[in-house]
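Inverse folding, one chain.
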């Protein structure tokens, strides 16, 4: 990771993507989708604002074998189901345990 981050333009997220995808090393890249989705569904506290703080919480939820895939799961969930402007809660398999869905449900009552 340190060697990758020394390269121009490569930060923690890019280094994590390279480690997880190319080298199959456990890493949790935290990008905009991962931040939004993990906060919205309740995996991390909404007050967390740094990608590193969110990463430290998220790695506790996944096994070492799952970690390389977890980033992709969260990104894809954020792109296609838990979209930024209008989440598709009716289609979401996580809605029963989702913080956002539960909040919206209370507001409609």
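Residues assigned per position:
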């Amino acid at each position: 990771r340190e060697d990758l981050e020394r390269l121009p333009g490569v930060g923690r997220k890019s280094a994590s993507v390279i480690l997880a995808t190319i080298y199959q090393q456990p890493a949790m890249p935290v990008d905009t989708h991962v931040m939004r989705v993990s906060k919205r569904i309740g995996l991390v506290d909404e007050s967390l604002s740094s990608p590193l703080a969110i990463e430290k919480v998220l790695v506790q939820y996944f096994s070492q074998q799952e970690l390389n895939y977890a980033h992709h799961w969260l990104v894809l969930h954020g792109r296609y189901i838990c979209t930024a402007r209008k989440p598709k809660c009716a289609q979401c398999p996580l809605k029963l345990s989702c913080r956002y869905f539960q909040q919206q449900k209370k507001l409609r009552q």
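The mean pLDDT is 94. The longest helix spans residues 64-80.
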